[in-house]
Amino acid sequence: MTSTDFGQEVRLTTRLHDLVRSYPRGNSIISEFIQNADDAESSSLTVTLDVCSYTGERLEDQRMVSLLDLRCSCITSQYSAIQTSRASSVS
Fold it and tell me: Is residue 73 part of a domain?
């Protein structure tokens, strides 16, 4: 299969912002993390919620401050699973 470039361009930050905003409010994103870990037959799942505010003063380049919404919170997930040949062949 070949791909075709249709000349569309979307900034990565815009795409990620839209992706995150498409999740409904509430715990649905946590359910998604759990489902992904379950699908991967993970033995553990860690979810971290960071609600801190940052000043940006420790950034390497102060021009990056304008890219930050310093009042936002962050949620991350990490799970452990053994990668199998079946999982690695999925594209």
Answer: yes
